[in-house]
Amino acid sequence: xxxxxxxxxxxxxxxxxxxxxxxxxxxxxxxxxxxxxxxxxxxxxxxxxxxxxxxxxxxxxxxxxxxxxxxxxxxxxxxxxxxxxxx
Length: 87
Description:
Blueprint: H1 15-86
């Protein structure tokens, strides 16, 4: 009981089907290019935001250090005044 050998069916595309497929491929390539460009733009924006935040954080850190130094000096002055007052 052998199965008869069947010749594989050769599928051929019509010219219209081929054109439609080429059109679909072209549309997909365009979409991929747009997505890729969009990703690059998003990455550039994110890098800009990151750099901006780092700059602001550095400025805030410097400001806080300055305020701490000012408070230390102010506390030294208060200690001196308290010492004079207690004498």
